[in-house]
């Protein structure tokens, strides 16, 4: 099951998801909610097993990294490779993330890991409250509800002093013996996957408007050095 499959199934049943483009946006989420209401399902705008079955789709998840119910995590995957502009220039896409959320943001020389997480969640989960000042990585410890390391969880880390104010935030995608594998922004100035030492973790959070995830960690093979550049 892909986002395109969901959009096509909605459209064939008279619920307009917008363009059939495989991208999860507000129109697709609204169409899902309308469909759920028409079928007496829980209206959460997410395509879990019951909604998928009602749409005639197979919701079996064989790889948690491509679970279509984790719409915010899939949004993060689509942005893999996004980089900030060199020198004094700015990547206009990153500036637009802030503008769409009404966040004052002067340029991509300002750490944008929190902005990346806010964009992925804000653009896909319209009912999910974001933390105050989402640019501050440690403020994400107040987001949603506490959870464990599982695909899509918001992972918050410290930088420098554990009791200081510097931090980093991204999305859990797996772990090895020594590190969490994090899909995040501003990791060596780009959206990429980084290995971050487990002893730097401050906490995992989960969207409050989304059903609890599997709670299962994903074990991955170590690849590359531990990250030391996330600011």
From TrEMBL:
This is Peptidoglycan binding-like domain-containing protein. Transmembrane segments: none annotated. Residues 5-55 form the Peptidoglycan binding-like domain. InterPro entries: CHP02594, Peptidoglycan-bd-like, PGBD-like_sf, PGBDSf. It comes from the Bacteria.
């Amino acid at each position: 099951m892909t986002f395109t499959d969901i959009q096509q199934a909605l459209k064939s049943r008279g619920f307009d998801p917008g363009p059939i483009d495989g991208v999860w946006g507000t129109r697709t989420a609204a169409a899902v909610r309308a469909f759920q209401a028409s079928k007496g399902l829980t209206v959460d705008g997410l395509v879990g097993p019951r909604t998928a079955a009602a749409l005639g789709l197979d919701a079996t998840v064989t790889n948690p990294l491509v679970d279509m119910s984790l719409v915010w995590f899939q949004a993060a995957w689509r942005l893999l490779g996004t980089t900030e502009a060199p020198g004094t220039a700015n990547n206009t896409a990153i500036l637009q993330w802030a503008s769409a959320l009404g966040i004052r943001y002067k340029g991509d020389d300002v750490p944008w890991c929190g902005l990346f997480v806010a964009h992925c969640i804000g653009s896909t989960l319209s009912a999910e409250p974001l933390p105050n000042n989402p640019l501050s990585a440690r403020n994400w410890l107040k987001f949603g509800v506490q959870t464990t390391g599982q695909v899509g969880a918001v992972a918050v880390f410290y930088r420098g002093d554990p009791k200081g104010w510097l931090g980093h935030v991204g999305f859990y995608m797996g772990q090895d013996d020594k590190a969490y594998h994090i899909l995040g922004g501003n990791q060596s100035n780009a959206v990429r996957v980084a290995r971050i030492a487990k002893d730097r973790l401050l906490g995992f959070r989960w969207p409050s408007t989304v059903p609890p995830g599997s709670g299962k960690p994903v074990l991955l093979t170590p690849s590359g050095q531990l990250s030391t550049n996330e600011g």
